[in-house]
Amino acid sequence: MSHALSQDAIHQLFDNARTHNAWLDKPVDPALLHTLYEHVKFGPTAANCCPLRIVFVTSPAAKERLLACMSPGNVEKTRNAPVTAILAHDTAFHEQLPKLFPHADAKSWYDGNDAKIARDGLTNAWLQAGYFIMAARALGLDCGPMGGFDAAQVNAAFFPDGKWAADIVCNLGYGDVSKLFPRNPRLSFEEACRIA
Length: 196
Ligand SMILES: Cc1cc2nc3c(=O)[nH]c(=O)nc-3n(C[C@H](O)[C@H](O)[C@H](O)COP(=O)(O)O)c2cc1C
What we know:
By secondary structure, the chain is an alpha+beta fold. It contains 9 helices and 4 strands. The chain has a single domain (about 30-170), classed as NADH Oxidase (3-Layer(aba) Sandwich). It has a 4-stranded antiparallel sheet, with helices on both faces. Helix 1 packs across helix 7 and helix 2 packs across helix 7 (about 115-140). The mean pLDDT is about 100. Bound molecules: flavin mononucleotide (FMN). Flavin mononucleotide binds near residues 19, 145, 146 and 183.
């Protein structure tokens, strides 16, 4: 049976974790990117479809290509981040279902149903993006997720064969807490929840 994490761990994952825009001059060990994925991959998805695909942008040349796709307000924070992850989804993720969900013919649920492929690919990859942020925080990394970029430009620059499609760009590194904005309020339980 699982047990509750320590208060320290819960605070690191949620209550004290922030979205970072400024980064310490401290590299991210490439081995940590592998460890990160090894945790992300176990988050649940519909029929275990695992549509998330990730490009970890670390080289200066790839970073320059990505910067050209970012909204003006996201350029400097992305330039300064030691790693920037392009979180994408595989537009033909269902091809992997015979491997990922072998006890049922799940691929046939998708074959010929482009609307279901598009919806489930996108929604499950976004779900996995949430796991990505939480796994990064669990490993002591900070994140700066961004929707402010030109997806068509990112797709042309990084996925010219059209198989993967960019959803979120997420800076990764060790955040500079001295540069944080004040935390914005959240909705209360009463505002956001009902017990039925
Ligand atoms: C999907 C997504 C897209 C976002 N897009 C941007 C963005 O384009 N630029 C930016 O500066 N912040 C962006 N943010 C950051 C949010 O504004 C930030 O996570 C939110 O205000 C909560 O901040 P906090 O974690 O510090 O409390 C994005 C966050 C998410 C999850």
